[in-house]
Amino acid sequence: MLDFAILGLLHESPMHGYALRKQLAAKLGMIRAAISYGSLYPALRRLQSAGFITESRPDSDDASSHDQSSHGVGKRARIIYTITAEGKERFQELLAEAGPEAFNDAAFDVRFAFFARTDRQIRLRILEGRRRRVEERRESLRQMLGRSSEWLDAYTQELQRHGLEACNREARWLEDLITAERAGLTPGQTSSESRSVESGNFEK
Amino acid sequence: MLDFAILGLLHESPMHGYALRKQLAAKLGMIRAAISYGSLYPALRRLQSAGFITESRPDSDDASSHDQSSHGVGKRARIIYTITAEGKERFQELLAEAGPEAFNDAAFDVRFAFFARTDRQIRLRILEGRRRRVEERRESLRQMLGRSSEWLDAYTQELQRHGLEACNREARWLEDLITAERAGLTPGQTSSESRSVESGNFEK
DNA sequence: TTCGTCATGTAATGGGTTACATGATTAC
DNA sequence: GTAATCATGTAACCCATTACATGACGAA
Q1: Of the candidates A54, A123, A117, which has an alpha carbon nearest to the alpha carbon of residue A85?
Q2: Cα separation, A40 vs B5, whole angstroms
Q3: Is there a contact between A34 and A21 (Cβ–Cβ < 8 Å)?
Q4: D7 C1' – B16 CA distance, angstroms?
Q5: What is the pLDDT, as a whole number, of residue A200?
Q6: What does the DSSP 8-state code read for residue B22?
Q7: A104 beta carbon < 7 A from strand D?
């Protein structure tokens, strides 16, 4: 999941670790707390040795930095990571992976956050899978609430009622998204806008 | 968190591990997937050697052995766990703990699920802490959505919009609960263990 | 000069999971 | 007799966290 997010962000543009973390926090909108360096840097290392990204250190490779530094090691020791072709492939692979754990809360959110770079087919698969998941949970909550008045205390019931409502909400949200997708729309507005999104595969 | 939930359930009645897991799944209404035995049993072991619970195996230590003669149910090697006085103390301690991590999604839910055995003071503290947390998240989402239209794609924005809505709803929910608490509108429960509280539902 | 932020990392730990292994009891 | 469920447990791993350590740079 971290790998996925990292690849997704580096797919948009090369970055160093620190920036990656900030972007990640922004992208996921604080849904999860920002990931920590203790997991970020090892992940970068891992991805690099797997060949999915390359790192360019300022001393070994100077990627046209605006040379304001005079001697030796002028700039900070930023390490710019760039996604490779294999990395892009891997990213698509991870996207397409629709195993049951792809529909968990966190996994779904991350996938959704990168929908702009995802094929509509896959978007639909993920949305539908998530909907099924949410509906299952909703059903189980409904049943529980139905036959539980005698053996669950009021607070527990209230918690479940609230959970049920959240399920209903999300189910409706997903429903809308799915119909929009099927109609060829993207969220927010109609498909007519020709905003030249640099990624290009926003809306076919 | 697991410890907390185990103590909370054993506080209600002694149980063996397998049953504990089922109860846990019911209590948390599938909010999280049921915990696995791989974490449950080690936790029980830990709690026992810490003195918070005692185990009674049918062969080695048989406190009751009341009526083995009824062949109807030859109990298997069930191990019944019972909470000790220290365990109850520990449970209250964990309840009262209002560190910032007590307001995370999962931690809050578990605490809430045991509100029936929690003092009103503490209930209020937890509800208010959670509300603050939710409001912080809401604010950060609002800001992000305000100034993000240029650099966040439509899907990411939609995700955050949905998150913001969820925040708003939870904030309202918490608000209602807090005013209800302050007005003393809680179902039956007080300090002693009156188990016959099933009557009241929340609305008053 | 000292503080805050940028920037990269390591070690220890945490809190859980899956997969595996075992066996007893019940229902068909 | 065989399958499903009940019931307990171990070992290996996963994904992330916290706490720690380092250092460069800009601004007060």
Answers
A1: A54
A2: 31
A3: yes
A4: 9
A5: 37
A6: H
A7: no
